[in-house]
Structure formats: C-alpha cells, structure tokens
C-alpha cells in the first residue's frame, strides 16, 4: 500500500472494503508526522544561522527517516492483521474441535490486531520529541510545518489507541488485555500533554 499513489490509496480507503481503515490511516498520520520533522531538520542543516543545531538536526533526520519507514510498513501490516481476524471468523464451527480451533484462531488474530496499532502508537509517540526539537531549534520559517508534524503525531497515537481498545473488547486473555490497556492509557495521556506543550511554543497563538 505504501507504494500506491495518494489518489489510489484514498480511493481504496473510500471503497466498500473495510481495509485499509482507521488503523492504516493512523500509521499514515504518524509517517507524515515523521516526514515533517525530517523536512524541517533538512531545511535547518546547512544554514549559517542554525550552525549550532547542525548536529542535532542531522540526528533528527536519521531518526525521523527510520520512524517514517516503520510507520509506512505498518499501513499494510494493520490491514493484514484485520484480514487474519476475518479469516478466523470464517472457519467452520460444526464440531467441538472446529469450534475450539476457530475460537483460538480468532483470539490469536485479535491479539495481533491489537498489537499492530500499539506499535503504531508507540512509534508515533517517538516523533513528538523530534517535533518539539524542530519547533524550538529548527528553521523558524518552517515552524508551522513542525507544529503540524506534532499534531499529526498526536493523531497517529490517539487513532491507534482507539484501534487497540476496540480489539481488546473481544479478547478473553485478561492479562493480555490489562497490559495493552495500561500501555494505551499511558500513551493517550502523555501524548495529549506533550502535544499541548509543543503547541504552546507556537508564535501564532
């Protein structure tokens, strides 16, 4: 999916296919956030005015690029996880053995479907300190790009958290649910606080 044109991707999202859906869009938001942080850092490196930031911005370019690649791959991974759950629901359930196998496959599929958006949320959260750095010490002509990047990272995290929660609702493994719920709750709270802190740096308040 990451190799589609923007128009192709938008058309398949708009179709009657359930995938790619919100989970893949969350990953895309995170990838675009990383790309904006990377862009602002690239627009800062080499500028005499920002010579003191060169090393930090070069490091941000490398980190943001790696995060962007991971998130672009999660677009497809999220859709594949959803398909695995749907395939499990279609398994036969005539005999007790078939029923047991079907329930086991559904549970396993749901765990994967909850784990992928957790990776999206955690990876998107990693972009926030990069966004903050480029807001503070990046090229001031691109400060709004950096701020939009922070907002997109927030959207990536919170959108992914929603997808974690909807899958947790159907999982029977209480320990698994507890662990992922705690992680999702933490990411939600910390992301909202972090974004607020970054947006307060805006010169256009």
What does this structure look like?
- The protein is elongated and about 75 Å long.
- The model has no long low-confidence stretch (mean pLDDT about 95).
- The chain contains six helices and no strands.
- Helix 2 (about 20-40) runs parallel beside helix 4, helix 2 runs antiparallel to helix 5 and helix 3 runs antiparallel to helix 4 (about 95-135).
- Helices cover about 80% and strands about 0% of the residues.
- With about 200 residues, the chain is mainly α.
Order of helices and strands: HHHHHH
Oligomer class: single chain
Strand % is: under 5%
Strands, total number = 0
Unreliable runs: none
The overall pLDDT, averaged over residues, is 97
Characteristic terms for this protein:
single chain; 205 residues; 6 helices; 0% strand; elongated
Fold topology:
Layout: H1 6-14, H2 22-42, H3 54-89, H4 96-137, H5 143-168, H6 174-199
Summarize the structure.
It contains six helices and no strands.
């Amino acid at each position: 999916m990451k190799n589609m044109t923007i128009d192709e991707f938008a058309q398949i999202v708009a179709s009657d296919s359930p995938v790619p859906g919100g989970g893949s869009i969350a990953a895309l938001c995170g990838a675009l956030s990383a790309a904006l942080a990377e862009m602002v850092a690239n627009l800062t490196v080499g500028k005499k005015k920002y010579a003191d930031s060169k090393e930090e911005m070069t490091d941000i370019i490398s980190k943001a690029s790696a995060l962007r690649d991971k998130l672009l791959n999660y677009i497809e991974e999220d859709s594949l996880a959803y398909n695995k759950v749907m395939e499990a629901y279609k398994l036969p359930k005539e005999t007790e053995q078939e029923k047991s196998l079907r329930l086991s496959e559904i549970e396993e599929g749901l765990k994967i479907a909850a784990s992928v958006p957790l990776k999206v949320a955690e990876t998107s959260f990693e972009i926030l300190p990069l966004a903050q750095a480029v807001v503070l010490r990046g090229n001031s002509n691109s400060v709004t790009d950096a701020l939009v990047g922070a907002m997109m990272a927030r959207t990536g995290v919170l959108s992914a958290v929603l997808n974690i929660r909807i899958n947790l609702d159907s999982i029977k493994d209480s320990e698994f649910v507890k662990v992922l719920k705690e992680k999702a709750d933490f990411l939600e709270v910390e992301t909202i606080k972090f974004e607020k802190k970054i947006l307060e740096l805006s010169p256009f308040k």
